[in-house]
């Protein structure tokens, strides 16, 4: 397939590289040219603008937030204006349900396809093509772009015809991950202050009742106090928790834990944690109990 790829951060760079490995023709665009250079060395075609990345069958966006997706999609120089009729925009960004609805309507009006396909997995999973893809859109359109999902992930979950469903599920999943990080951090602060080795404690947890990737991954980061460099930066954690709260407000679903997490992330950012991995929010409890601040 001829694929344009916009957004070459920690996740996007790895995803675009795997599309190249799978034999697709990939044109890449990113505001920082160094990320483009690394991929052109592997066979990607550099794009000088968003428009230049929109001449193929599909354009994939993997960007940090609603504002970034809006900036590359709308306006005279955006995806909507330059993607051919019948081509497809695949949005793998974690964005609001409201933006998913807006993108769905805008692309339909332009005669283009739209599939929401956010992913679960950290950068190391992206590099290994082991992401879990959560997709939603018109069945024929999802089927058309399924080779992309096969190239970047280990399994694709199709949630129906409404793209917003995929975004809502992704938001809910990130809320759950943040909840695990916070509760793990509190539990480790409790046993750690009593002198229990955190790594030994984690081994006990993941060998018994909590043998799940999220506990192994984030428990390991917390036990090792390994928060830099960030695989998923703390400001993005706050953004995703706020997306969950916004979705809850729209659907009239109280999310009291999400409200707590919003305040925990605000505390982390207010105390200098902007550059840390979002798992550092779990280290606040140990700091508040007399330990050192997350760094």
Strand content: 5-15%
Assign the CATH class of the largest domain: Alpha Beta
> Reading side by side through the largest sheet, how are the strands ordered?
3-2-1-4-5-6
Sketch the topology as an H/E string, one letter per element. Answer: EHEHEEHHEHEEHEHEHHHHHH
Low-confidence stretches: none
CATH architecture label of the largest domain: 3-Layer(aba) Sandwich
Please name the CATH topology of the largest domain: Rossmann fold
Give the % helix. Answer: 40-55%
- Estimated structural class: alpha/beta
The global form is globular
- From the N-terminal CA to the C-terminal CA, the straight-line distance is 43 Å
Rg value: 20 Å
Helix tally?
13
Q: List the domain count as a whole number.
A: 2
In round numbers, the mean pLDDT is: 97
**Biggest beta-sheet profile:** 6 strands, parallel
The CATH H-level homologous superfamily of the largest domain: NAD(P)-binding Rossmann-like Domain
Number of E-type strands: 9
Domain 6-phosphogluconate dehydrogenase NADP-binding: 2-160
Family: Belongs to the HIBADH-related family.
Organism: Mycolicibacterium peregrinum
Signal peptide: 1-16
